[in-house]
Structure formats: C-alpha cells, structure tokens
Amino acid sequence: MSFCIxxxxxxxxxxxxxxxxxxxxxxxxxxxxxxxxLTGMGHSxxxxxxLLDAPPEASHVAPLAFFGHPxxxxxxxxxxxxxxxxxxxxxxxxxxxxxxxxxxxxxxxKFQIEILLPENILAIPMHVPLGLAMTEVTAETTLPVxxxxxxxxxxxxRFTLNAVSDYLxxxxxxxxxxxxxxxxNSMQQKELARRLGIPSQIIPNVLDFETPPxxxxxxxxxxxxxxxxxxxxxxxxxxxxxxxxxxxxxxIELVRRLNNSRAKxxxxxxxxxxxxxxxxxxxxxxxxxxxxxxxxxxxxGETRGTTPEGKKIYTLADVYPHADLITYPSHYEGxxxxxxxxxxFSKPVVVNTYAxxxxxxxxxxxxxxxxxxxxxxxxxxxxxxxxxxxALAAEWARTNYALGVKYFSYSVARRKLAARISNLFGEGV
Length: 429
Description:
It is built from 15 helices and 17 strands.
C-alpha cells in the first residue's frame, strides 16, 4: 500500500478520528466546527469513530473504536486504579490495537486521506488501544497529522494510578516530525512542553460569531410556558451536564441567596456516563435550600422533535434566548464552551474563576460576574443587578460579543488551521 502526500496548494482530504463523533459532548461539537471551517476553506472532511452521526458517504464506522464497546470497556477497567497488568491484559490491548490499525488503514485507503486529524485520542487515555493504533499508523504511513488535544491524562485524577505508564509515554501524545500538536489553552501548552518537551500551538474553542445567533421563533416562543416558567420569572440557566466538576451546588447557593421567588434555576443536561451520586447530592441541596429548580434534559436535544409523550423537544439554541442569567461555576474546564455560548447569545454570566478562565479569558476584558470559588455577597448583588437592570445586561452583552468576535470567532481558528497545514506541507494553503 502506498500513500501519496500532495505538495501543491490544492485542497486536502482530511480524516477526523476519535472514539465517537455523536451527540453534544465537547469534543464532538468542537470537531464539527473545525470541519465546517476546513470545508469552507476548500478541504474535504471524512470521519472515523466507533459511534458516528456524520454523513454516511463520508464516514467509516468502526465499533471497536468506541470507548464504550464491551471489549474495550473490559480491558480499560484493568488499566487504571491498579499499578500492574498481567500478560493476558497486554495481549488484549495488542489484539484490539491490531484490529483498530486495520480499520485505520481501511479508512485512509477508502477516502484517500492526506491529513490525519485525531481528536483527543492521543491526549486522554479513554481508549488506550486506539491511541496506540493511531501512533503506529502515523509512524508507518508518514502521513501528516494535526493532533487536536482537549484533555490530558495528567489533568484527570482517575488516570494517576495506572498499569500502562509505558503506553502513556509512547502514545499520549507521541512526537513525530510530520505532526502538529494543537491544544486549547496556555496551561496545556506549558505542561506539554514541560512534561514531554513537545511544542504546540493554541487554537481556542470557537463559535461562529460572524453569524448572529438565532433568536426566538414560532417553534421556541412557548418554551418558558412549556417548562413551567412565567414571563416575569428570572430564568437562571445552568447549561451543562450534571457532573461534579461543573460546581452546580454553587448555582443552587446563588439562587438560594437571591431570596426571590422569581428566581428559577433551570438545568439543561443529565448526568450522562459519570454516575448519579452527584445528582442525588444536588437534589438534597435543593430540598434544603427550598428553591425552585427545573431539570429539563428530557426536553432538550441535539435537534428539535417530540418526546414519546408528544411534548416538544428544544435545542440548547432554543433555550439560551429565553434565559436571563447563565451560571457557569465549574471547578475545572479545559476551556469553557458554555462561557462562549453565554457571550454568543448575549447573556450575563456568573463564572467561577477556574484556572483556564483566570489565565486565558479573564485578561481579555470580558464583563462577567466572577465567582472566586464560592458565592460571595458581591456575587449575589452583581447577579441581582443584571437581573433587575436590562440596560446594564445589554451593555455587558455588547462589550462581550465584540470581544468574542475578536478572540474566539471562526476567523481565528481558520487562520491558525491554515498555518498548521502550511507547516505540514511546507507551502501556503
């Protein structure tokens, strides 16, 4: 098998690879944005994953690539939280790896891929055999690679104790001559260089700020009524999954301390695959606080539709225009998509000063209600001010949107991606 690498300025055939491109997880959403940008630049995009909702004519579904595949989940369970692995486990890893290499070669050949673009699979070891397969195929084909890293193993406590340090050093991430490493924040850039001596470029998460957001239309006009809110209520939106690092207990505390029956907290997404213990704790907090909280994840989907009971399903883009205030009290984020969404939909936002926000976003001048790891009196009063003063909220929105255009628009990603491709091919693209 031979692999042809174009050396002209012609558009490239780019292959996105991950465990899944499906639903609304952060990696999937950001990858779709990159694909839209790259397609707009004239390139062709193709997809390989274990769980995939991309166009069939541009897709290669490899079920074994999904981290939730039973065989993969079984071997992964033997790799973390322990210090040693057996020979049998090593053989399992190698068997899965070899089969995934076959899938990668099929994908490359099927679509004549010219640039490989692995999404997070060389950063966080959610699927160790896939990372190894990707690394070996890179070495064997010499195809150019743009490795897009969203989360690293050292950023997650659950990967600290492991039986695969040899594999982590080899493939998470690897270093090759024809490989461009892209991270989403400056802390990752610094740590990647410090830990592994690997240089990288920052391309932050982006939104299409050049295109104004959709507003309320005939379909979404009744959303407040459908979720049981009055027009006079303060619609306080927590637009995240119910997972511990999102710090939702702070949103509950904020609503409690606002001490106003108009204040209603709305949580848009379920717990997902991280368990229900945190959800149970939050429900206890809500009961103790005596506040009105609406969980609407059964009414929010990736696309509009209806529930089995015949009720409307809305998109998150339908929900945002109705909100009066966004809460984003995360303890940790690799970047902060919900922050950008609040800016994009011109909504005031309460944001915890998590490390990436403090280092990469706060210095840019956004007008926000900053929460220093706890709900202070000042946070409560600032939230009350923007809820009661629409002119103040509008002033903040104008400032923030302009900054979003400047720092986090598609044009930013477009320019930086063009530079990465140019570096790989030694040409202007």
